[in-house]
Fold this sequence. Notes:
It contains no helices and 10 strands.
Amino acid sequence: MAAKLRKGDKVVVLAGKDKGKEGEIESVDPKAGKAVVTGINIAIRHMKQSQTSQGGRTPKAMPIDLSNLAIVDGNGKATRVGFRMEDGAKVRFAKTTGEAI
C-alpha cells in the first residue's frame, strides 16, 4: 500500500500529550506504523560519558503512531490524504482542498 505520510511532510498531532502541535516528519517506520516528528513526543535520555561525547540528559524525539498524525494542507489545517492518477502517475492529494501534495 502507498504511504500516506512520508519523510519531509508537515503534520499536526491529533491526539496525545502533544495534541495540536505541528512538526516535520524525520523518519517513518511503515512496518511498526510509527513516525518520528521534530519537536514532538520528546523524552529525556540519559547518556553515559565517553571519550568522544559529553554525558548528561539529552532530549530525544520518540516515535508516534501514524494514526495520531494528519498532514497539513495549504490552508494550514489538518486533512486526510487521497490518491489519484495524474498523467499516468499516482499522486497524493489533500481531501479538503483537492490540491496535489
